[in-house]
């Protein structure tokens, strides 16, 4: 006769590993698909590392705006490294297995860097608001110590919001054989739907995280740019207005590149379950892979100072 402990151990099951699909329905052409993915990952890592080196080596860029840009570049490096190993392992080598605990770790860091990026974009909008509304006090308001505190608050916020997510997954009971993920990385909505248990708490908590981070951040960014636009329109000449708006152009583009795929992905996961799995997967890839690759391009094209500093890094020259 089995003991009650034995019954409990049989009734509760967690897979030793998950099987990652990659892109559902396109497994036969993963080799070709790996080419644009490899290019985007290379561009993301190279571009963001160049920005970090450019800001560090150029004293004229030791200003609040560029410190926040460094935070964004560092976050994009982390977001890229969160998904790159498993994605390229699936596309290049058809290595599809990821251990259960490794999956939880990847899931935490993937969502952690997403929340951090949202917070950094909000901090950058505050930076632009201060620079335009009170340019004479800009450097005295956003001192190095204030920027450090903002950075620490961003990391603490993301950690506190997402600390519970792996444990909420770990408490779930999974059915044997139901361990196939529809991505090449561990994504919380995807992982929790592999469970054979009530996932309503996971859904509610996931929605809370989305609303309390990306939702609030996007609203505050819109509010900050509403005030910025009012101040810009009050400037005396059209030339001053254009110059003020040009200082915000890169940030506005970065906000669109990050939040539009993010909102699309959230809507699809909550209301588009009838859509093919490939749609969910491709939108997730656009959200996680494209912004880190595009942000360095956006800032190097729109900012002459960053572009020149990046070229100096490539040429191996420092500016004193």
Overview of this protein structure:
There is one protein chain. The chain has a three-stranded mixed beta sheet with strand order 2-1-3. Helix content is 75%, strand content 3%. It has a single domain (25-314), classed as Rhopdopsin 7-helix transmembrane proteins (Up-down Bundle), CATH 1.20.1070. It starts with a helix and ends in a 5-residue tail after the last helix. It is built from twelve helices and three strands; from the N terminus they run αβααβααααβααααα. The protein has 320 residues and is mainly α. Residues 1-9 have low confidence and may be disordered.
Brief overview:
The protein has 320 residues and is mainly alpha-helical.
In terms of topology, how is this protein built?
Layout: H1 4-11, E1 17-20, H2 30-57, H3 64-93, E2 97-99, H4 100-133, H5 138-141, H6 144-162, H7 165-170, E3 180-181, H8 188-192, H9 200-233, H10 238-271, H11 277-302, H12 304-315
Parallel strand pairs: 1-3
Antiparallel strand pairs: 1-2
């Amino acid at each position: 006769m089995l003991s009650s402990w034995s019954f409990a151990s049989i009734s509760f099951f967690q897979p030793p590993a998950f099987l990652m699909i990659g892109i559902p329905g396109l497994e036969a052409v993963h080799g070709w698909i790996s080419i644009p993915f490899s290019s985007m990952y290379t561009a993301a890592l190279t571009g963001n590392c160049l920005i970090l080196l450019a800001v560090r080596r150029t004293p004229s860029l030791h200003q609040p705006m560029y410190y926040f840009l460094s935070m964004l570049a560092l976050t994009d490096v982390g977001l890229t490294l969160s998904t790159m190993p498993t994605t390229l392992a699936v596309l290049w080598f058809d290595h599809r297995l990821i251990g259960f605990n490794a999956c939880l770790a990847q899931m935490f860091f993937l969502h952690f860097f997403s929340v951090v990026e949202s917070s950094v974009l909000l901090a950058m909008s505050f930076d632009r608001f201060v620079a335009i509304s009170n340019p004479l006090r800009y450097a005295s308001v956003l001192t190095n110590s204030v920027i450090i505190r903002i950075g620490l608050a961003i990391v603490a916020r993301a950690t506190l919001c997402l600390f519970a997510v792996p444990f909420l997954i770990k408490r779930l009971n999974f059915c044997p054989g139901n361990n196939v993920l529809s991505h090449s990385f561990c994504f919380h909505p995807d992982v929790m739907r592999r469970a054979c248990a009530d996932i309503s708490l996971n859904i509610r908590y996931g929605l809370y995280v989305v609303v309390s981070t990306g939702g609030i951040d996007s609203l505050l960014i819109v509010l900050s740019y509403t005030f910025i636009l009012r101040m810009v329109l009050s400037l005396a000449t059209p030339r001053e207005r254009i110059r003020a708006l040009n200082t915000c152009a890169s940030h506005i583009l970065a906000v669109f590149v990050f939040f539009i795929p993010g909102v699309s992905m959230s809507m699809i996961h909550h209301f588009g379950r009838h859509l093919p799995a490939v749609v969910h997967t491709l939108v997730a890839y656009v959200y996680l892979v494209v912004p880190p690759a595009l942000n360095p391009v956006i800032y190097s094209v729109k900012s002459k100072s960053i572009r020149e500093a990046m070229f100096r890094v490539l040429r191996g020259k420092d500016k004193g």
